[in-house]
Specification:
By secondary structure, the chain is mainly α. The protein contains 13 helices and two strands. The protein is 62% helix and 3% strand.
C-alpha cells in the first residue's frame, strides 16, 4: 500500500511567519497582495514608434506619485497625532523621521531620470502635451497640508477632475501641520496671538530645551521637512534645465523659469526667521 502523498503546500514567508496557501478561502500571493498585474500594466507609452526612454519617464513619475501618497499618509498622521494632545507627540516625531527619509529618496530619484539624455527625451516629449507635472494634485495637497496654502493655484489648474478639485478644496479648509504645531505651543502655556508673540514664545522654547525639548524637536523636524522639500525643488529645476533648457513646459508653463520662481517657497517662514532672533 502506497502511503498517501503529503499535501502540496507552498509557503510565502514574511519575516518569521509562514502562511500556507490553501488555508484561506481566497488564495493570497505576493503578486495578488501587491496587485502586481494592475501595477505593471499601468505604463502605457504614447510614442509611436515606442521611444526607449519613455518607459523610464513614466515609471519614475509613477513612483513619485506613490511616494507622494505615502507622504500624505504620514503627514496626515503627524497632524492628527499633534492635534490629539501631549500623549501622541512621540508618535508625531517618529513619523516625521520617516517623512524625512522618504523626501531624501525623492531627491535621489532625480539621478535615475537624469540617465536620460535630452535627445532621448525629445523623442517623445511632444506626445506629453498638454499634460504637465504642474497637474500633480498630490504634490499640491502635500504643500497645502504642510502649511503653504495658496487658493490661487485652484484657478491655474487645468484638466483636473471634480474629485481632485474636491480634494484640494478640502486641504485648503482643513488644519495644516503648521496649525497644529502652533496649537501645541499654545497648549504648553505659551502665547501665540500673532507672529511677533509666537516668535517670542519660540525663542523661549529654543532657550529652555530642558522644559520644551519636545516642542523644539518638532520645530526642527518641520524645518528639515521644509529644507528637504526645497532641496527637491532645486534638484528638479536643474534637471529640467538640463533636459529642455529654456523651452516652455508641455502644459504651457514657462518651464524652468516657473520652477525657479518657486525656489524661495518656505512652509514655515517663521521658523527660519527665528534663526535671526535667537
Amino acid at each position: 500500500m502506497t502511503p498517501a502523498e503529503p499535501p502540496d503546500e507552498t509557503f510565502v514567508s514574511f519575516g518569521e511567519e509562514a502562511v500556507a496557501e490553501g488555508q484561506r478561502e481566497r488564495q493570497l500571493t505576493y503578486g495578488s497582495y501587491l496587485r502586481l498585474e494592475d501595477l505593471l500594466d499601468a505604463q502605457h507609452l504614447e510614442s509611436d514608434p515606442p521611444a526607449h526612454d519613455e518607459l523610464l519617464f513614466i515609471t519614475v513619475h509613477q513612483v513619485y506619485e506613490l511616494w507622494f501618497q505615502q507622504l500624505l499618509h504620514e503627514v496626515e498622521a503627524v497632524r492628527d497625532a499633534l492635534a490629539a494632545g501631549e500623549g501622541r507627540v512621540w508618535w508625531a516625531r517618529h513619523l516625521m523621521n520617516r517623512v524625512h527619509v522618504v523626501e531624501r529618496v525623492l531627491v535621489q530619484q532625480v539621478d535615475v531620470l537624469e540617465t536620460m539624455t535630452p535627445q532621448d527625451f525629445l523623442e517623445f516629449r511632444q506626445r506629453l502635451a498638454p499634460a504637465s507635472g504642474f497637474q500633480s494634485v498630490q504634490f499640491r495637497e502635500l504643500e497645502f497640508l504642510s502649511g503653504a496654502k495658496d487658493p490661487g493655484y485652484l484657478k491655474r489648474f487645468r484638466g483636473i477632475t471634480a474629485a481632485e478639485r474636491s480634494r484640494l478644496d478640502r486641504r485648503l479648509a482643513e488644519p495644516s501641520l503648521w496649525d497644529v504645531f502652533v496649537g501645541l505651543v499654545a497648549a504648553r502655556g505659551l502665547p501665540v496671538d500673532d507672529d511677533a508673540t509666537l516668535t517670542a514664545s519660540l525663542r523661549t522654547v529654543a532657550h529652555d530645551r530642558g522644559t520644551h525639548g519636545e516642542v523644539w524637536a518638532l520645530a526642527e523636524a518641520l524645518v528639515l521637512h521644509d529644507e528637504l522639500a526645497a532641496a527637491w525643488r532645486a534638484r528638479h529645476v536643474v534637471m529640467v534645465e538640463r533636459m529642455i533648457g529654456s523651452r516652455s513646459g508641455t502644459g504651457g508653463s514657462t518651464g524652468a523659469t516657473y520652477l525657479r520662481s518657486r525656489l524661495d517657497l518656505k512652509y514655515y517662514p517663521l521658523l527660519w526667521e527665528l534663526r535671526s532672533a535667537l
